[in-house]
Amino acid sequence: MVKTQIYSIVNYNEAVQVMDAGADHIGLVPMQSGGIPAHRVPFDVVELIYAEAKRRGVKTISIMLNKDVEEMFFIIKKLNPDIVHIAGMDYTADQEFADRLHKECPGMKLMQAVLVDDRGAIERSKKYAEFCDYLLTDTGLAVATGIGASGETHDWDIDREIVETVNIPVIIAGGLGPDNVEDCIRRIKPYGVDSLSKTSYKFRDGVIEKDIPKVKEFCEIAHRVSKELGLD
User: Among 67, 79, 107, 114, which is most exposed with the fewest C-beta within 10 angstroms?
Assistant: First the structure.
């Protein structure tokens, strides 16, 4: 089954609604020095969300948008997510980070974002796959949010080659929503699909809110198509 991953959750009630709508993975930005302030979630709220997700068997993801490794480890040790997502370009994961994560946080998985701007993304993916547990391919760079959050798609032929080349799960992000997730899955056959922009309301002050009917439609389409294709 192709996994559905929904970013960026900002409060507990929204998280529950997203899980009820069918999300297999949920991601949020814990309080930290990087990222958009309106997207950062206080630790006590993160802990409530993660506890409910773990009760349901939904994977939890902490999105790291800073470049301070010690701050990252403080956050992830406190919150104990299933997956740590390194999302910036100022700092990307390396073998040393992966080794430390697996030593100090047994069982926790590492996901690195890959900017798909040209075919160079394939070589970067092969490098990251040597020490990461997941890759997330995405579109565009933003000052405050690192790789992604553009709402734009990129060259899916590159994604397909990455999926066929590396030996770890690949999640596709970048402009995915109910309107195009079926085409994405049929063309790429990824491990997972991710949605933020097309399943969210965005307000001028930077606040975002999940569009729950869109989340539900996105998850239902992804799960239906993956069943039709026999994807595990």
Answer: 107
What tokens were used for 187? 């063309």
DSSP 73-128: HHHHHHH--SEEEE--SSS---HHHHHHHHHHSTT-EEEEEEE-SSTHHHHHHHHH
Whole-prediction pTM:
0.93
Residue type, 173: A
pLDDT digits (tens, 9 = 90+) for 70-84: 999 999 999 999 999
Q: What number is the average pLDDT over the span 99-121?
A: 94
Domains of the chain in sequence order = 3-229 (3.20.20.70)
Closest alpha carbon to 184 in 229, 135, 216: 229
Phi, psi dihedrals of residue 39, rounded to the nearest 5°: -95, -10
